[in-house]
């Protein structure tokens, strides 16, 4: 009877691995961790290091199983103790993730940033917050890119700063209660006026005055320090103040008009371009063969686009991009006028989708 020969396996197979990589002094060091445990350890949820590391071994290449050399570890870290080096790589190293996983994380963080922006901002005309879909569209228009190594709150504040430059949006005011002695009321009111704060109410009792006001969040620290010097008390009643009550659909349409100004400008340029194309086509038909410019035709839009420069500009236009999306769905191309109407309808639908009347 034949017996199969069983060969011993002399390697430890690492499965379900998340690699943390650190480059130091021109050399690469890696450790093998369990997935979803690295972030838990960094946030302080997971305390047991054995639950995070698959093995307390430092590699130069985890996927190939190549261990780091002792002389390289001493040169980079000053020691060859694997446990200490693993801790430093775990703290400072970069977590390697797959493409789809990274895309999912960035998409989730983008949504978190948009939510924070929505909660902290209002429309200055109506004092109401924008919807999450409108905020996301504005973030796309300013070409915002998520930084996976930065916190969502910090990036949300940067987004608000950029949006204030181009769109009708501002930070929602905070509602505070200031309690000071009666002798300091004049100086407090002068400070509130200099901060453009809106005084809501005043109450007094036994030499103590209480002032409820709404002010820009940027002045909160100055206000806190000012009241500490006066030995007063500061209370936060609301982090962000919005107008209460139901919104009217006409107001909402006005906001959609304001926010869709930039897409309309690009559509207007497309319309001007199409008018130029028509003029060039008519002049060519009248027999001006001597001054005829080479005409380029876009097969996607089924239209003549003029000279080389106009041809390049056409490929960057919303008209061409919209027809490309229709082509992938096997739909016929639209003219510039039809494209403008279709985009307007799509914008209104996306704006009103999350809004309940």
Automatic annotation (TrEMBL):
Gene3D superfamilies: 3.30.70.240, Ribosome maturation protein SBDS, N-terminal domain (3.30.1250.10), SBDS protein C-terminal domain, subdomain 1 (1.10.10.900). Residues 111-172 form the Ribosome maturation protein SDO1/SBDS central domain. The keyword Nucleus applies. SUPFAM superfamilies: beta-beta-alpha zinc fingers, FYSH domain, Hypothetical protein AF0491, middle domain. Residues 174-237 form the Ribosome maturation protein SDO1/SBDS C-terminal domain. Residues 16-102 form the Ribosome maturation protein SDO1/SBDS N-terminal domain. The keyword S-adenosyl-L-methionine does not apply. InterPro entries: Ribosome_mat_SBDS_CS (IPR018023), Ribosome_mat_SBDS_N_sf (IPR036786), Sdo1/SBDS (IPR002140), Sdo1/SBDS-like (IPR039100), SDO1/SBDS_C (IPR046928), SDO1/SBDS_central (IPR018978), Sdo1/SBDS_central_sf (IPR037188), SDO1/SBDS_N (IPR019783). GO terms for biological process: cytosolic ribosome assembly. It holds the Pfam family SBDS_domain_II. It is found in: Cytoplasm; Nucleus. NCBIfam families: RNA_SBDS. Associates with the 60S ribosomal subunit. This is Ribosome maturation protein SBDS.
């Amino acid at each position: 009877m034949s017996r199969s020969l069983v060969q011993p396996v002399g390697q430890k197979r690492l499965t379900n691995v998340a690699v943390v990589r650190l480059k130091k002094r021109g050399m690469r060091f890696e450790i093998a961790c369990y997935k979803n445990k690295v972030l838990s350890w960094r946030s302080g949820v997971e305390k047991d290091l054995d639950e995070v590391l698959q093995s307390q071994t430092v590699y130069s290449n985890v996927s190939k199983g190549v261990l780091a050399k002792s002389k390289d570890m001493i040169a980079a870290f000053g020691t060859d103790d694997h446990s200490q080096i693993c801790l430093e790589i775990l703290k400072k190293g970069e977590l390697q993730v797959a493409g789809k996983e990274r895309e999912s994380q960035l998409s989730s963080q983008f949504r978190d940033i948009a939510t924070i922006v929505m909660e902290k901002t209002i429309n200055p005309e109506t004092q109401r917050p924008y919807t999450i879909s409108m905020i996301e569209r504005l973030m796309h228009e300013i070409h915002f890119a998520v930084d996976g190594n930065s916190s969502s709150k910090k990036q949300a504040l940067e987004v608000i700063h950029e949006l204030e430059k181009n769109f009708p949006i501002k930070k929602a005011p905070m509602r505070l209660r200031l309690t000071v002695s009666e002798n300091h009321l004049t100086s407090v009111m002068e400070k509130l006026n200099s901060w453009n704060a809106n005084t809501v109410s005043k109450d007094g009792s036994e030499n103590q005055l209480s002032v409820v006001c709404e002010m820009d969040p940027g002045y909160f620290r100055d206000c806190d320090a000012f009241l500490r010097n006066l030995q007063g008390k500061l209370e936060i009643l609301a982090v962000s103040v919005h107008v209460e009550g139901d919104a009217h659909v006409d107001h909402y349409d006005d906001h959609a008009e304001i926010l869709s100004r930039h897409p309309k400008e690009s559509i207007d340029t497309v319309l001007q371009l199409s008018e130029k194309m028509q003029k060039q086509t008519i002049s060519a038909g009248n027999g001006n063969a001597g001054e005829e410019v080479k005409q380029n035709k876009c097969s996607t839009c089924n239209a003549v686009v003029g000279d080389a420069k106009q041809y390049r500009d056409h490929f960057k236009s919303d008209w061409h991009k919209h027809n490309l999306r229709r082509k992938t769905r096997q739909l016929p191309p639209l003219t510039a006028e039809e494209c403008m109407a279709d985009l307007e309808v799509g914008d209104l639908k996306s704006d009103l989708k999350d809004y309940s009347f």
